[in-house]
UniProtKB/TrEMBL annotation:
The chain crosses the membrane at residues 65-86, 92-110. This is Zinc-finger protein. The keyword Membrane applies. Keywords: Membrane, Transmembrane, Transmembrane helix.
Length: 136
């Protein structure tokens, strides 16, 4: 990538990052936006069943888990303090409500962050994305 122009030095077409991120957040293929990216809860498909875009290059690793912990922690901790200071519920009630809330928020965010990270890598040609398409 050329630092002064922000363009790639090779012949690859630039990919829009924000639309790809939104497709990934919806757990859809970052290329076509219609095919499902995930098989099951967190397993990324090797290729998109609609447009045949290879997705096996991703290296999401622990990124989705770190982002999920960051967001859930920063949302739930202040909320826990606010609820405790305002209403003083019984400890078991407070624990039950916030345990269910943390679990639900975690289960909601984790696959969406995984899709967004894979889509970001796809949009930026990271980790081998685009090599098979560029050569064919």
């Amino acid at each position: 990538m050329s630092p002064e122009t922000g363009t790639t030095s090779d012949s690859r077409a630039p990919r829009e990052t924000w639309p790809a991120l939104m497709r990934g957040w919806r757990r859809r293929c970052p290329s076509c936006g219609t095919g499902p990216m995930l098989r099951g809860y967190l397993k990324v498909r090797d290729t998109c069943p609609v447009c045949r875009e290879p997705l096996h290059h991703h290296r999401a690793d622990d990124g989705p888990a770190y982002l999920t912990i960051l967001i859930v922690g920063h949302l739930m901790a202040p909320l826990l303090l606010l609820v405790f200071e305002t209403w003083r519920p019984e400890p078991l009630t407070l624990f039950t409500i916030f345990a269910v809330g943390c679990l639900a928020l975690t289960l909601y965010l984790l696959p969406r962050f995984k899709g967004a990270i894979v889509a970001f890598q796809w949009a930026r040609y990271m980790h081998g994305f685009g090599e098979t398409r560029a050569s064919s």
